[in-house]
């Protein structure tokens, strides 16, 4: 059998987290995240296409399309040409496979910025960053070939590790005894025409580090506390609603379990701040609560429990045997309810490390996640060099939460600059 | 709000498929007019329902073929299904003498399976893309045979010929592309 034919026969199952996204996603709930790199020069689409093709040769894992089986979706090898387009839509929009040669990620460019929008079923933020960095490295190497005559990086193919680390690491005996309360849902008029506002708060990393050192907390804990107070002051205070503000924070499981998979391997913790229990006007009280919640929920046994409960559900025999079209109906209906347990999601992919010789070509990195009808604002952050880019993606008309967030940081002595997509 | 050259300026335009909306509106009006004329002029013959079935068939075909990235075998299967439904509807609306089940559907089955057989022979390398639709077409092709055993179909010769062609077509593809077919089945039915 020839190589091409062998590749066409290649397929793989979706990992435990990936299974849910195609069932719940639609044009209004895209399950897409975006990583952007703002370069110091205008992007050439021709060179970008070359860079993406080279990156795909190394990361064949991403060369797939999504197909429907009778019980579950699956990935199949995709040998079509990659589509590179100028950015002409709002960030994190639904990726229509039909207009994207079936690929589950979309590479676009605008001026000096390269974007990759990735459907979450394919991979998580950390593996997405790994692939995107390869595209950026390739682009720089092609655009400045004279500067990179000596190979600084390995040219060997990356091991396509597609293992479902969830199945390998979950605890079959995990049991849940928690009863969860519904969360406060952000209120306000929506932006028309399905537009998405992206607001980037460019935070001075030195100032932030200093503050977190003084308060003896991590950056994620600190920003979560700022976000809770910003939601309270910017959106909740005006409403007569005493449901808790619940922030869902994704957790990279590769830090807890030995795994090199490129597939999804993340879980989440939910930090809950109840207006009936603590004074949400007092920042230090919120910070204390967040710190305690993080320490409690990030204990390996707790992380393992949350992950295991999700895996058990996806692995349930009676769920497995339901035909795919029925699963789709059930998941969509149940998601209408499940989403009411989170006010917003805040994802921090941390520092984006770039090889020193390549850094001078890059100005900044951005990380965005798609908002939707219930979680009207989603937050994400990444840092590069001496800046942290905290991004709000929102479908709300007003920017009260963003304004309060910025104000709180400035009051704490942290320098912040704002950039946005102008919506 | 601060804004720089990070994003393109986008026009807030709601993108709807206007042509599709207009054609659906025209079709609904047309169906209403036809039903009204039928009821007012001639209540005994349901000729307007033939037109409704035709319109639904056209929409079924358009919606499916509008989807990009669908392979030719899936088109064969969907057409086999839609044409058979249209034929049964026509037969039913004009008094159901059984010609649809006795003659037309076996002919549709013969045409569909012959097409798939030719496709298998001329493009064996791409067969893995066709496999599942071939199996589905085969299963559909067995319906006339089941109806014959139940005594609903009287024209046994044509039904046996069509089922035999379907079985032969499937057998041929199993011989030529058995491995691809097995992998395709495993993919589609994995739990």
Could you walk me through the main structural features you see in this protein, from its secondary elements to its overall organization?
The complex is a heterodimer of chains A (423) and B (191). By secondary structure, chain A is an alpha+beta fold. Chain A has 2 domains: 3-150 and 160-167, Chloramphenicol Acetyltransferase, CATH 3.30.559.10; 180-354 and 366-420, Chloramphenicol Acetyltransferase (2-Layer Sandwich). Chain A is 34% helix and 23% strand. Chain A is globular. The model of chain A has no long low-confidence stretch (mean pLDDT 90). Chain B is mainly alpha-helical. Chain B folds into 2 domains: 20-69; 72-191, no CATH class. Chain B is built from 7 helices and no strands. In chain B, helix 2 (47-66) packs antiparallel against helix 3 (72-93) and helix 4 (99-122) packs antiparallel against helix 5 (127-141). Chain B is flat, with a radius of gyration of 22 Å. The A-B interface holds A 5, 8-9, 11, 13, 36, 38, 67, 69-72, 74, 76, 86-91, 97-99, 102, 110-113, 192-195, 198-200, 320-321, 366, 399, 417-423 and B 1-10, 12-14, 67-69, 125, 128, 180, 183, 187-191.
- Mean pLDDT score of chain A, rounded? 90
Count of separate DSSP helical elements of chain B: 7
Uncertain residue ranges of chain A: none
Query: What general outline of chain A do the C-alpha atoms trace?
Result: globular
| Radius of gyration of chain B using CA atoms only | 22 Å
Number of helical segments with 4 or more residues of chain A: 13
Average predicted local confidence, pLDDT of chain B? 85
Q: CATH top level of the largest domain in chain A?
A: Alpha Beta
Provide the CATH topology of the largest domain in chain A: Chloramphenicol Acetyltransferase
Structural class of chain B: mainly alpha
Shape of chain B: flat
Main beta sheet of chain B, described?
Answer: none
The CA-CA distance between the termini of chain B, in Å, is 50 Å
Order of helices and strands of chain A: HEHEHEEEEEHHEHHEEHHHHEHEEEHE
Q: What multimeric state do the chains show?
A: heterodimer
- Greatest contact pair? A-B, 46 and 25 residues
Class inferred from helices and paired strands of chain A:
alpha+beta
| Rg estimate of chain A, integer Å | 21 Å
Query: Which strand-content bin applies to the residues of chain B?
Result: under 5%
What percent of residues of chain A adopt helix (DSSP H or I)?
25-40%
């Amino acid at each position: 059998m020839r190589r091409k034919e062998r590749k066409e026969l290649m397929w793989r199952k979706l990992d435990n987290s990936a299974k849910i996204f195609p069932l719940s996603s639609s044009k209004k709930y895209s399950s897409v995240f975006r990583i952007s790199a703002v370069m110091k020069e205008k992007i050439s689409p021709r060179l970008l296409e070359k860079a993406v093709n080279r990156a795909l040769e190394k990361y064949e894992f991403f060369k797939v399309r999504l197909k429907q089986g009778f019980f579950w979706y699956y990935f199949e090898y995709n040998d079509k040409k990659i589509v590179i387009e100028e950015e002409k839509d709002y960030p994190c929009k639904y990726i229509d496979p039909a207009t994207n040669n079936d690929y589950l990620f979309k590479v676009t460019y605008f001026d000096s910025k390269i974007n990759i929008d990735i459907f979450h079923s394919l991979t998580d933020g950390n593996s997405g960053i790994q692939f995107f960095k390869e595209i950026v490295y390739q682009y720089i190497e092609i655009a400045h070939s004279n500067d990179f005559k000596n190979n600084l990086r390995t040219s060997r193919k990356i091991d396509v590790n597609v293992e479902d680390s969830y199945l390998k690491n979950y605890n079959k005996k995990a049991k849940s005894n928690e009863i969860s309360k519904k969360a406060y849902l952000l209120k306000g008029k929506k932006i028309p025409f399905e537009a998405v506002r992206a607001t980037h708060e460019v935070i001075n990393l030195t100032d932030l580090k200093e503050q977190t050192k003084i308060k003896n907390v991590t950056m994620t804990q600190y920003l979560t506390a700022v976000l809770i107070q910003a939601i309270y002051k910017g959106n909740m205070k005006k409403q007569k609603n005493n449901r808790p503000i619940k922030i869902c924070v994704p957790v990279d499981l590769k830090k807890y379990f030995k795994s090199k998979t490129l597939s999804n391997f993340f879980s989440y913790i939910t930090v809950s701040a109840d207006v009936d229990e603590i004074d949400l006007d007092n920042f230090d009280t919120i910070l204390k609560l967040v710190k305690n919640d993080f320490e409690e929920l990030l204990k390996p046994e707790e992380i393992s429990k949350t992950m295991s409960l999700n895996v058990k559900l996806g692995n349930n025999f009676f769920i497995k045997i339901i035909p795919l079209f029925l699963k789709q109906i059930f998941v969509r209906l149940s998601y209408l309810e499940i989403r009411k347990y989170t006010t917003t999601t805040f994802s921090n992919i941390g520092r984006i490390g770039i090889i020193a010789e390549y850094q001078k070509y890059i100005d900044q990195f951005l990380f965005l996640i798609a908002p939707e009808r219930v979680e009207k604002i989603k937050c994400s952050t990444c840092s590069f060099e001496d800046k942290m880019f905290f991004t709000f993606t929102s479908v709300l008309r007003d920017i009260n939460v963003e304004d309060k967030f910025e104000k709180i940081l400035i009051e704490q002595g942290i320098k912040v600059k704002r950039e946005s997509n102008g919506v | 709000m601060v804004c720089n050259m990070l994003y393109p300026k986008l026009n807030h335009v709601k993108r709807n498929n206007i042509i599709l909306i207009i054609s659906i509106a025209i079709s609904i009006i047309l169906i209403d007019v036809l039903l009204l004329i039928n009821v007012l002029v001639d209540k005994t013959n349901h000729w307007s329902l033939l037109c409704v079935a035709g319109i639904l068939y056209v929409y079924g075909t358009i919606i499916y073929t509008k989807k990009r990235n669908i392979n030719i075998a899936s088109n064969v299967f969907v057409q086999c299904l839609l044409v058979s439904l249209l034929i049964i509807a026509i037969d039913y609306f004009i008094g159901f003498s059984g010609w649809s089940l006795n003659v037309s559907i076996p002919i549709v089955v013969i045409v569909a399976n012959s097409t798939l057989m030719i496709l298998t022979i001329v493009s064996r390398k791409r067969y893995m893309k066709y496999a599942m639709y071939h199996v589905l077409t085969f299963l559909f092709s067995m319906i006339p045979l089941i109806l014959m055993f139940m005594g609903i179909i009287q024209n046994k010769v044509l039904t046996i010929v069509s089922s035999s062609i379907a079985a032969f077509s499937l057998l041929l593809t199993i011989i030529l592309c058995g491995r691809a077919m097995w992998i395709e089945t495993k993919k589609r039915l994995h739990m």
